[in-house]
Amino acid sequence: AQSVAQPEDQVNVAEGNPLTVKCTYSVSGNPYLFWYVQYPNRGLQFLLKYITGDNLVKGSYGFEAEFNKSQTSFHLKKPSALVSDSALYFCAVRADTGRRALTFGSGTRLQVQP
Amino acid sequence: DSGVTQTPKHLITATGQRVTLRCSPRSGDLSVYWYQQSLDQGLQFLIHYYNGEERAKGNILERFSAQQFPDLHSELNLSSLELGDSALYFCASRLIGSGGNEQFFGPGTRLTVL
Question: What is the average per-residue pLDDT within A8-32?
Answer without folding.
Answer: 95
